[in-house]
Amino acid sequence: MKKVLVATVKPFHPLAVKGIKEICEKSNLKFSLLEKYGDKSELLNAVTDADALIIRSDKITEEVLDAAKNLKIVVRAGAGYDNVNCAKAAENDVVVMNTPGQNSNAVAELAFGMMLYLARGKFNGKAGIELKDKKIGIHAYGNVGKNVARIAKGLGMKVYAFDPFVSKENIEADGVKVMDKVEDLYSQCDYISLHIPLLDATRNFVNEKYFSMMKEGACLVNTARKEVVDEEALVKIFAERKDLRYISDIAPDCRKELEEKYPERTLFTPKKMGAQTMEANVNAGLAAINQIVKYFENGDVTFKVN
Ligand code: 3PG
Questions:
Q1: How confident is the model over 47-104, as pLDDT tens digits?
Q2: Are 186 and 210 in contact (CB under 8 A)?
Q3: How far is the CA of 241 from the centre of ligand 1 (A)?
Q4: 243 C-alpha vs ligand 1 centroid, how far in Å?
Q5: Is the CB of 281 under 6 A from ligand 1?
Q6: Do 44 and 70 contact (CB within 8 A), yes or no?
Q7: What is the residue with the minimal CA distance to atom 10 of ligand 1?
Q8: 185-201 burial, b if ≥16 CB within 10 A, otherwise e?
Q9: Phi, psi at residue 244, to the nearest 5°?
């Protein structure tokens, strides 16, 4: 019997775990659960006899892959798979998949929750600002970006997007205006919502150049990855400009400094919360186990990323 290990430092909602377990039982797979593990050694022990692995932001390093002697497939229940050493997985004949789109509404909703909270002065009782009629620039128009556009339109925002990998027609079909240059997004929008994946090409992407061209009072909203924002440039621009705001679901290393110096201009979640809803956990968790079942039953590699 093949073993499926669900290894999540940040646990899924219990309904997602229950659903994964039921599908395993129906499909003659052995279900195993490792949640909230504190130490890497717990993961290294648990993976030794796993044939399939379901993870979230858990780091699947060379060491983990080498310890997992029976491993055939890793499914990242979520979108970004920068936490998996995909090249090493390929070398070990391990298929890596993600579950695109399954948690994207949750991430988009959190972005607006954070935008509203900061716009209303963290509910300090003083007059805040509204989102209606403000320009929002969506940097990368994937599944989360599309949901951000839908919600932004409902709030009466003016919605723009930049994404060289999505056709103009597809973006415009959603009633979103396309920016031909990423610079225009940064220089013209009141809110810039980041949805770029973490790649070598996007590491520290939002640097001094882009910060310095931001509009007066503009707000950068990061529900993507900490590493796509250049923190040195962030600290520098916050000291120079008293108007810029930064919201992030993945707190920067300079979090303490920014929060202490600029509490009214910054907002960070205590822990990455974007995908942390019952619905997103169930959607992504069940998609992950269903992809594993299909892979074992007929070699389906639809969502393979390596
Ligand atoms: C993703 O890439 O899907 C999101 O960043 C969610 O990550 P999480 O599963 O660790 O919350």
A1: 999 999 999 999 999 999 999 999 999 999 999 999 999 999 999 999 999 999 999 9
A2: yes
A3: 31
A4: 30
A5: no
A6: no
A7: 57
A8: bbbbbbbbbbbbebeee
A9: -70, 150
- Tens digits of residue pLDDT in 264-296: 999 999 999 999 999 999 999 999 999 999 999
160: nearest Cα among 178, 147, 139, 180: 178
Q: Which atom of ligand 1 is nearest to the CA of 80?
A: 2
Distances from the Cα of 247 to the Cαs of 20, 169, 201, 229, in angstroms?
33, 30, 22, 11
57 lines ligand 1 (CB under 6 A): yes
- Please compute Rg for the chain using Cα positions: 20
Q: What is the pLDDT of residue 94?
A: 98
**What is the per-residue pLDDT across 21-48, written as a single tens digit (0 to 9) for each?**
999 999 999 999 999 999 999 999 999 9
Cα–Cα–Cα angle for 293, 299, 300, rounded to 5 degrees: 75
- Edge-first strand order for the sheet with 245-248 is 177-178, 158-162, 135-139, 191-194, 219-222, 245-248, 266-268
The span from the CA of 16 to the CA of 250, in Å, is: 23
Ligand 1 centroid to Cα of residue 80, in Å, is 7
Four-CA torsion 101, 106, 109, 113, nearest 10 degrees: -150
Q: Which amino acid is at 280?
A: A
Both structure tokens of 27: 């499909």
All domains of the chain, ordered by start, with CATH?
3-102+276-298 (3.40.50.720), 104-268 (3.40.50.720)
Q: What is d(CA 51, CA 69) in angstroms, rounded to the nearest whole number? A: 8
Q: What single letter denotes the amino acid at residue 89?
A: A
